[in-house]
Amino acid sequence: MTVEGKSLTGQFSRSLLSPTDTKIFCISLLCPCILYGQNQAITKQESCSTWIKDSCLFTFACLFGCYSCIGAYGRSRIRKERGINGNYYQDCTTHCFCLPCALSQETTELTRGGYHFLQ
Fold it and tell me: The pTM is what?
């Protein structure tokens, strides 16, 4: 349950491994940099045309093996904005071991706030 984008339960609106939108999951699996960039543009309240810089950052992080650190930073921003419990180490572990699920969960959380992706 959410009020004005904040979680009343202190948790994401859906669990990490629960079913999600097929399109979102496929994009997070095949090209996670796109979802990461769009999630960050929404969180930073920037226009969706500026998501490219965050997507490039995430791509380089993937190439050098530090994607979980960058992903955890983005997930932490979403958690703070939404009032969701957790810490950076949980976010880092989530992105390290279950990247597509983490990005899908974050995107679903932002979508519940009224944002729409890839239209």
Answer: 0.84
Helices and strands in the chain, H and E counts: 6, 2
Structure tokens at 56: 């490039």
- For residue range 93-111, what is the model confidence (pLDDT) as tens digits? 999 999 999 999 999 888 8
Give 30's DSSP letter. H
* Cβ contacts of 77 within 8 Å, gap of 6 or more: 40, 43, 44
DSSP bridge partners of 7 = 2
Q: What is the pLDDT of residues 16-26, one digit of tens each?
A: 888 778 888 89
> Which of 63, 43, 60, 47 shows the shortest CA–CA distance to 103?
43
